[in-house]
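Example A, followed by Example B.
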Amino acid sequence: MVVVAKIKALTGKENEMKTALLDMIPKVREEEGTLVYTLHQDPNDPTVFLFYEKYKDTDALVVHSSTPHFKALFKTIKPLLEGNPEIAMYNELAGL
Protein backbone atom coordinates (compact mmCIF):
# COMPACT_ATOMS: atom_id res chain seq x y z
CA MET A 1 0.00 0.00 0.00
CA VAL A 2 1.43 3.36 -1.06
CA VAL A 3 0.15 6.73 0.07
CA VAL A 4 1.08 10.09 -1.43
CA ALA A 5 0.09 13.01 0.76
CA LYS A 6 0.42 16.58 -0.52
CA ILE A 7 0.26 19.28 2.16
CA LYS A 8 0.27 23.02 1.51
CA ALA A 9 1.28 25.46 4.22
CA LEU A 10 0.02 28.99 4.52
CA THR A 11 2.52 31.48 3.14
CA GLY A 12 4.88 32.43 5.96
CA LYS A 13 4.19 29.19 7.87
CA GLU A 14 6.55 26.99 5.83
CA ASN A 15 9.17 26.62 8.56
CA GLU A 16 6.61 25.74 11.23
CA MET A 17 5.06 23.18 8.89
CA LYS A 18 8.45 21.74 8.00
CA THR A 19 9.38 21.36 11.68
CA ALA A 20 6.10 19.63 12.52
CA LEU A 21 6.37 17.24 9.57
CA LEU A 22 10.04 16.42 10.21
CA ASP A 23 9.16 15.66 13.82
CA MET A 24 7.05 12.74 12.59
CA ILE A 25 9.93 10.85 10.96
CA PRO A 26 11.53 9.35 14.11
CA LYS A 27 8.10 8.51 15.53
CA VAL A 28 6.93 6.74 12.38
CA ARG A 29 10.26 4.91 12.14
CA GLU A 30 9.10 2.89 15.18
CA GLU A 31 5.95 1.64 13.41
CA GLU A 32 6.49 -1.99 12.45
CA GLY A 33 4.38 -1.95 9.26
CA THR A 34 5.67 1.33 7.83
CA LEU A 35 8.29 0.53 5.19
CA VAL A 36 8.94 4.01 3.72
CA TYR A 37 8.00 7.44 5.05
CA THR A 38 9.78 10.14 3.07
CA LEU A 39 9.13 13.88 3.29
CA HIS A 40 9.77 16.17 0.30
CA GLN A 41 9.49 19.93 -0.20
CA ASP A 42 8.78 21.53 -3.57
CA PRO A 43 11.89 23.49 -4.64
CA ASN A 44 9.76 25.93 -6.63
CA ASP A 45 7.07 26.45 -3.98
CA PRO A 46 8.36 25.98 -0.42
CA THR A 47 4.80 25.98 0.92
CA VAL A 48 4.19 22.55 -0.68
CA PHE A 49 5.25 19.35 1.08
CA LEU A 50 4.80 15.79 -0.07
CA PHE A 51 4.98 12.54 1.87
CA TYR A 52 5.68 9.31 0.01
CA GLU A 53 4.60 6.50 2.30
CA LYS A 54 4.76 2.75 1.86
CA TYR A 55 3.09 0.28 4.18
CA LYS A 56 3.33 -3.50 4.49
CA ASP A 57 -0.45 -3.70 3.99
CA THR A 58 -3.69 -1.85 4.62
CA ASP A 59 -3.68 -2.88 8.28
CA ALA A 60 -0.32 -1.14 8.76
CA LEU A 61 -1.77 2.04 7.26
CA VAL A 62 -4.71 1.83 9.67
CA VAL A 63 -2.31 1.41 12.58
CA HIS A 64 -0.28 4.44 11.41
CA SER A 65 -3.40 6.59 11.03
CA SER A 66 -4.59 5.76 14.54
CA THR A 67 -1.34 6.45 16.43
CA PRO A 68 -1.27 9.28 19.00
CA HIS A 69 1.56 11.02 17.11
CA PHE A 70 -0.46 11.00 13.87
CA LYS A 71 -3.47 12.53 15.61
CA ALA A 72 -1.24 15.09 17.35
CA LEU A 73 0.34 16.07 14.03
CA PHE A 74 -2.99 17.07 12.56
CA LYS A 75 -3.84 19.17 15.62
CA THR A 76 -0.48 20.91 15.24
CA ILE A 77 -0.64 21.57 11.51
CA LYS A 78 -4.34 22.45 11.22
CA PRO A 79 -3.74 26.21 11.76
CA LEU A 80 -0.78 26.08 9.34
CA LEU A 81 -2.67 24.51 6.43
CA GLU A 82 -3.83 26.20 3.27
CA GLY A 83 -6.77 24.02 2.32
CA ASN A 84 -7.01 20.31 3.00
CA PRO A 85 -4.21 17.81 2.42
CA GLU A 86 -4.51 15.83 -0.81
CA ILE A 87 -4.25 12.13 -0.06
CA ALA A 88 -3.97 9.47 -2.76
CA MET A 89 -3.60 5.72 -2.21
CA TYR A 90 -2.12 3.21 -4.62
CA ASN A 91 -1.53 -0.52 -4.81
CA GLU A 92 2.06 -1.21 -5.79
CA LEU A 93 2.35 -3.32 -8.91
CA ALA A 94 6.11 -3.52 -9.53
CA GLY A 95 9.34 -1.79 -8.65
CA LEU A 96 13.05 -2.06 -7.94
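Example B, a separate protein, is given below in the same form.
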Amino acid sequence: MATSDKRKQSLYFPQRMLKEIQEEAARQDRSLSWIVQKAWKIARREIMKYPSVNDIPDDEVDDTRGKTEPSSAT
Protein backbone atom coordinates (compact mmCIF):
# COMPACT_ATOMS: atom_id res chain seq x y z
CA MET A 1 0.00 0.00 0.00
CA ALA A 2 1.40 3.39 -1.00
CA THR A 3 1.70 6.00 1.70
CA SER A 4 0.59 9.53 0.99
CA ASP A 5 2.95 12.46 1.39
CA LYS A 6 1.36 14.60 4.10
CA ARG A 7 2.99 17.96 4.63
CA LYS A 8 1.53 20.71 6.74
CA GLN A 9 1.02 23.96 4.83
CA SER A 10 -0.77 27.17 5.73
CA LEU A 11 -3.08 28.58 3.10
CA TYR A 12 -4.87 31.89 3.34
CA PHE A 13 -8.32 32.49 1.87
CA PRO A 14 -10.59 35.52 1.87
CA GLN A 15 -13.06 35.20 4.73
CA ARG A 16 -16.09 34.73 2.47
CA MET A 17 -14.37 32.03 0.40
CA LEU A 18 -13.25 30.18 3.51
CA LYS A 19 -16.81 30.26 4.85
CA GLU A 20 -18.09 28.76 1.58
CA ILE A 21 -15.44 26.02 1.70
CA GLN A 22 -16.31 25.27 5.33
CA GLU A 23 -20.02 25.07 4.49
CA GLU A 24 -19.34 22.70 1.59
CA ALA A 25 -17.07 20.56 3.77
CA ALA A 26 -19.82 20.32 6.38
CA ARG A 27 -22.44 19.51 3.72
CA GLN A 28 -20.31 16.67 2.37
CA ASP A 29 -19.05 15.62 5.80
CA ARG A 30 -15.47 16.04 4.52
CA SER A 31 -12.41 17.93 5.72
CA LEU A 32 -11.39 21.34 4.39
CA SER A 33 -8.25 19.70 3.06
CA TRP A 34 -10.26 17.15 1.09
CA ILE A 35 -12.45 19.86 -0.46
CA VAL A 36 -9.46 22.00 -1.49
CA GLN A 37 -7.59 18.99 -2.91
CA LYS A 38 -10.59 17.94 -5.01
CA ALA A 39 -11.13 21.53 -6.18
CA TRP A 40 -7.49 21.71 -7.29
CA LYS A 41 -7.75 18.43 -9.20
CA ILE A 42 -10.85 19.69 -10.98
CA ALA A 43 -9.46 23.18 -11.74
CA ARG A 44 -5.80 22.49 -12.46
CA ARG A 45 -6.15 22.04 -16.25
CA GLU A 46 -7.90 25.38 -16.52
CA ILE A 47 -5.40 27.12 -14.24
CA MET A 48 -2.48 25.74 -16.26
CA LYS A 49 -3.83 27.70 -19.26
CA TYR A 50 -3.00 30.99 -17.49
CA PRO A 51 0.29 32.55 -18.54
CA SER A 52 3.16 32.64 -16.08
CA VAL A 53 4.04 36.07 -14.72
CA ASN A 54 7.37 35.51 -16.48
CA ASP A 55 5.49 35.30 -19.80
CA ILE A 56 3.89 38.75 -19.42
CA PRO A 57 5.91 41.89 -20.20
CA ASP A 58 6.62 43.94 -17.04
CA ASP A 59 4.62 46.92 -18.28
CA GLU A 60 1.45 44.79 -18.44
CA VAL A 61 1.69 43.14 -15.02
CA ASP A 62 -1.01 44.12 -12.52
CA ASP A 63 -0.83 41.84 -9.50
CA THR A 64 -0.83 42.15 -5.73
CA ARG A 65 2.89 41.52 -5.36
CA GLY A 66 3.94 45.12 -5.89
CA LYS A 67 4.01 45.56 -9.66
CA THR A 68 1.36 47.82 -11.13
CA GLU A 69 0.47 49.13 -14.53
CA PRO A 70 2.44 52.23 -15.51
CA SER A 71 0.57 55.42 -14.72
CA SER A 72 -0.58 57.59 -17.58
CA ALA A 73 0.31 60.92 -15.95
CA THR A 74 -0.14 63.90 -18.19
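On Example B: The chain has a mean pLDDT of 84.
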